[in-house]
Structure formats: C-alpha cells, structure tokens
Task: structure prediction
Amino acid sequence: MSTLRRRIIRAGGWNVAKRIIKPIPIVGSVFAVGLAGYEIRRKGLIPGAVHVGLDVTPIVGTAKGVVELFTGDLIPDKSDRRKKAPAV
Result:
C-alpha cells in the first residue's frame, strides 16, 4: 500500500510542479513590461530599454535574474554611473 501511495504522491507532485514552473517566463515578462517605465527612468533611455528587453526575453531574462541575485545589477542606475566616473 505504501508504494502505491508514494507513486500517487510523486505523480501528483510532478504535475503540480509542472503547472507552477511552466508560466514563470510569461509572468516574468508581464512584470518586466509593467515595470518598464520605472526601469527606464532609473537607468536612462538606452540602458533602461536594454535592461527591459533582456528581462522580457524568457530564457535570457531568467538567466539575467539569477546572475543579478549574486552580482547585483548588470546595468547600473544613472546615479551609480556618475559616482563611478573618474574625476577629471
């Protein structure tokens, strides 16, 4: 009886996991488009558009998000770029 129960739980768990994992790229793209204006204002027109474009692309956006968890923003904000600029 316990092997039958394990099989049912394993099959049910896999179906639930598939249902959760499948829409994540689409949901991520919707959030990226929703936050596009905020990101463009924060980073500037061209860097902000590149940032949003990378986030909207499903596989690239996911990979970029994972990298940014460990390294921080790949494309710095406007104020961060001014601080890092060498003094003349």
